[in-house]
């Protein structure tokens, strides 16, 4: 019977894996976009804040300005220039139905770089999102298209590389296209967790189980649970020979020889990438910086092409017998780790029930306090939440409302909710014009201008925390790294943006009366000296105008010599 049980497990696993792994992606069509060996700093599907990682992060030996080349013949179909996100990016459309994306670049190839620069000066706008026709910028496989960098949301020099389906714009797992990246290391499992599913994975939350390792086989002691409805999750990483913590490609959960859940991270669209928050223990990720992936489907998680249909992973223990559990993790190269454990129902514990303030997946909900109202859409939550909303006094300087407490930041919200707040005193029209809604979600703050309807101001957010109204009369500004009138011999001008509440939402610089192109690098504005301001050109006047979230405008006049 033991031999038969093991054979059944193997057959079940092979059949389910072959079902998921039937891809017709071209092998070896795309080349390495760098001229150094491909080494991964992050893979497709790795967990990020509020999204899956949608491509490969290729190491550039901690250097910038390495040559980036076209992965195959095609044409430049799009470029982006943005403060966060991709920074500077190139999109190349290929004749085989795929588009490759290259991001965090420092510079485009010369002809394209000049074209983008001309458009920026014509529009008097640094940020751009431009599309091109096939004949404008054709490229051949291996042709230089850019220099690597550290722009946008990058935290260090590297190249972000994606492969997309040109028609659907879905991002595909590049490792399924046959790139030669050595990998003989199986995923590493460091934790097992179970959840009481009688109400929600958020309440009471994760129950940790110690894991023991022998080779690529992991075990635990008998898992005793106090609820007949449970699910499992696993803490695991893939090292892939290179030391970085990569995401797990595929996982399967087998109970008593029967497959009950499986996921593989093959393709994801940017429209759906936020569903990652329903695939992980979000509370552990935000509060404890731990990446724990659910081996079950949360009721509000609607990510397509991720888990096998009709396999929820939710276990209904109808007896108090011991049940065999096996968790199988694989990377794209087939390196495999297995965790074997047993689960048994003990006496039933006290279950959590819904209340009048419960938000449920696939149902909208409106809740109110004396001075606040929140409206959730039917897509707001991935699992049930007994939502706690109340008011407390506002201790902020220039605060003009009570602080509205919206549960806590450790429960994710999928889409934007609408929040209305009434000030705690009568405001003049001038004060209303300078009110911002300020959300504090623990690790950072977010401010929006909001809109007024009578005595109520309305705004939208997609995180929970505490929200209050602030009257902001402060002015934004920029700080220089030189003394006024000084001679500048460096290659750049750097201005640091500063605002008390919110962000600088508009920046304009004019050199001697003409618009000057500054790039925005996080909180800095950077101009790289070029023909617009050559050496030996004498004294210059730089006029900088900034606007913050509240709409306050400040103009500063700076001088320097060149």
TrEMBL record:
Q: What CDD domains is this protein classified in?
A: M23_peptidase (cd12797)
State the InterPro entries in the record: Cell_wall_metabolism_enzyme, Dup_hybrid_motif, M23ase_b-sheet_dom
The cross-references to SUPFAM superfamilies, in alphabetical order and at most eight, read: Duplicated hybrid motif
Q: Which Gene3D superfamilies match?
A: Glucose Permease (Domain IIA)
Q: Which part of the chain is the M23ase beta-sheet core domain?
A: 52-119, 134-167
Signal peptide positions are 1-21
State the UniProt keywords alphabetically.
Answer: Signal
One family name in Pfam for this protein:
Peptidase_M23
Does the keyword Signal belong to this entry?
Answer: yes
Where does the source fall among the domains of life? Answer: Bacteria
Supply the name of the protein. Answer: M23 family peptidase
Give the originating organism: Chryseobacterium rhizosphaerae
């Amino acid at each position: 019977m033991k031999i038969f049980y093991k054979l059944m497990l193997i057959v079940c696993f092979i059949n389910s894996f072959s079902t998921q792994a039937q891809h017709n992606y071209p092998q070896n069509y795309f080349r390495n976009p760098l001229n150094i060996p491909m080494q991964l700093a992050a893979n497709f599907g790795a967990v990020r804040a509020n999204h899956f990682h949608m491509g490969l992060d290729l190491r550039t030996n901690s250097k910038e300005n390495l040559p980036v080349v076209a992965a195959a013949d095609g044409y430049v179909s799009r470029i982006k220039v943005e403060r966060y996100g991709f920074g500077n990016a190139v999109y190349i459309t290929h004749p085989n139905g795929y588009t490759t994306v290259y991001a965090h670049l420092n510079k485009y190839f010369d002809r394209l770089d000049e074209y983008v620069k001309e458009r920026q000066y014509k529009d008097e706008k640094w940020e751009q999102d431009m599309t091109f026709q096939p004949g404008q910028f054709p490229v051949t496989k291996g042709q230089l298209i850019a220099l690597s960098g550290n722009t946008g949301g990058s935290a260090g020099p590297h190249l972000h590389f994606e492969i997309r389906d040109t028609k659907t714009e879905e991002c595909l797992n590049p490792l399924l296209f046959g790139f030669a990246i050595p990998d003989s290391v199986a995923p590493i499992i460091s934790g097992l967790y179970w959840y009481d599913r009688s109400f929600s994975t958020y309440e009471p939350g994760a129950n940790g189980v110690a894991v023991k390792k022998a080779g690529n086989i992991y075990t635990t002691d008998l898992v005793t649970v106090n609820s007949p409805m449970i699910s499992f999750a696993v803490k695991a990483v893939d090292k892939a020979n290179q030391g970085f913590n990569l995401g797990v490609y595929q996982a399967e959960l087998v109970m008593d020889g029967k497959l009950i859940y499986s996921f593989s991270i093959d393709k994801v669209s940017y429209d759906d990438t936020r569903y990652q928050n329903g695939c992980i223990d979000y509370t552990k990720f935000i509060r404890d910086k731990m990446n724990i992936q659910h081996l079950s489907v949360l009721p509000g998680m609607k990510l397509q092409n991720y888990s096998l249909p009709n396999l929820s992973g939710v276990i209904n223990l109808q007896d108090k017998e011991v049940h065999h559990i096996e968790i199988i993790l694989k990377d794209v190269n087939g390196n495999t780790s297995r965790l074997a454990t047993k689960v048994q129902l003990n006496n039933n514990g006290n279950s959590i029930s819904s209340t009048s303030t419960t938000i449920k997946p696939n149902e909208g909900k409106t809740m109110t306090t004396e001075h606040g109202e929140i409206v959730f859409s039917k897509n707001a939550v991935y699992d049930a939440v007994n939502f706690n909303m109340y008011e407390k006094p506002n201790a902020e300087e220039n605060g003009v409302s009570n602080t509205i407490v919206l549960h806590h930041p450790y429960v994710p919200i999928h889409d934007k909710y609408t929040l209305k707040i009434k000030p705690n005193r009568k405001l003049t029209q001038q004060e209303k014009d300078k009110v911002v809604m300020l959300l504090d979600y623990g690790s950072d703050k977010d401010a929006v201008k909001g809109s007024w309807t009578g005595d109520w101001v309305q705004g939208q957010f997609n995180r929970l925390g505490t929200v209050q109204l602030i009257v902001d009369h402060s002015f934004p500004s920029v700080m220089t790294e030189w003394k006024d009138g000084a001679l500048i011999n460096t290659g750049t001008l750097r201005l640091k943006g500063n605002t008390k509440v919110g962000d600088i939402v508009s920046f304009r610089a004019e050199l001697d009366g003409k618009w000057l192109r500054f790039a925005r690098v996080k909180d800095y504005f950077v101009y790289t000296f070029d023909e617009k301001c050559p050496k030996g050109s004498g004294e210059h006047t730089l006029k900088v105008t900034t606007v913050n979230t509240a709409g306050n405008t400040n103009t500063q006049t700076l001088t320097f010599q060149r």
